[in-house]
Every structure is written in structure tokens, then in C-alpha cells.
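Need residues for this backbone.
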């Protein structure tokens, strides 16, 4: 059986961003959401990116890539993105930030060190389908869904 899957890979820049965040202490987690009001009867919200803020003021932002078919670690400018969305969608898609630090998903990683960002290696490349954030006893997995944006969950070792 032939494998027709087209793998999407992390760039060297994204991998470098992951490595540079390792060993840093988490101060705050911010989720940037897209709110789609095109259909006024059905507002849709998706997670566009997750921004880990560290105590040394360094940030790691994990997002969808430009094509929406994989993950990326980006240099994020929320003001520029919000402006572009306003112009392109005439205000019907908005970007807003949520402090996710006190949520059930993230409260246990605040003050912990990001020990490792794990990605899946295939031959000489790293597949951009998910990342595992290892905070020691706490681990989170971030993946992408074509219709739902980023998906964040607890990660348990097998």
C-alpha cells in the first residue's frame, strides 16, 4: 500500500526557537484566539497560537504554519495580525488574547522549567504535526486540527 501522506516539517528557525526556550522558567501562558463572526448566528473561536512567557522575558509562540497544515514556532506580532485580519475580513474575524495561566490546562506549569520540547523525527527531518512540552512531571501536547486550529491536551507517557 502506497503512503500518500504529505509530511510537513519544522524549519531550522522553528527548531532553534524550541531549543532556545528549553531550560527557561514559565511565568505566564497566553492563548491568542480567532473569533469568527461571519455568521452572526454561530460565532466560532479557535486557538491561533500559544505563547509561553518565561521569567527572563523570552517568549516561545507555537502556531499553525502559513498554510494551516502544520505547526510552527513563530515570531508573533499580535497588533500586526489583528490589523491584517480587520482589513481582510472587514472586522468579522477578530484576534484576542487570553491569559491562560490560571486555567486547569496550564496552572500546574507556571513556575516550572520547560525541560524539553519534543518533536517527531522522520529520517533527517522533524514532522510539524505536534510538539510535546516537557515540564518534568507535567507534560502538554500541542497538535493541529484542520478545522479547529491548535489542540492542546495533557500528555501521558506510554
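Answer:
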Amino acid at each position: 500500500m502506497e503512503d500518500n501522506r504529505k509530511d510537513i516539517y519544522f524549519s531550522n528557525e522553528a527548531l532553534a526557537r524550541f531549543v532556545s526556550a528549553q531550560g527557561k522558567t514559565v511565568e505566564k501562558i497566553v492563548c491568542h484566539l480567532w473569533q469568527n463572526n461571519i455568521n452572526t448566528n454561530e460565532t466560532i473561536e479557535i486557538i491561533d497560537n500559544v505563547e509561553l512567557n518565561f521569567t527572563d522575558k523570552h517568549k516561545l509562540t507555537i502556531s499553525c504554519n502559513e498554510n494551516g497544515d502544520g505547526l510552527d514556532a513563530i515570531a508573533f506580532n499580535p497588533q500586526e495580525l489583528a490589523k491584517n485580519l480587520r482589513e481582510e475580513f472587514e472586522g468579522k474575524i477578530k484576534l484576542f488574547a487570553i491569559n491562560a495561566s490560571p486555567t486547569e490546562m496550564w496552572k500546574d506549569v507556571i513556575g516550572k522549567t520547560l525541560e524539553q520540547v519534543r518533536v517527531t523525527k522522520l529520517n533527517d527531518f522533524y514532522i510539524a504535526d505536534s510538539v510535546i512540552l516537557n515540564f518534568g512531571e507535567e507534560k502538554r501536547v500541542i497538535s493541529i486540527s484542520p478545522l479547529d486550529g491548535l489542540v492542546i491536551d495533557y500528555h501521558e507517557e506510554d
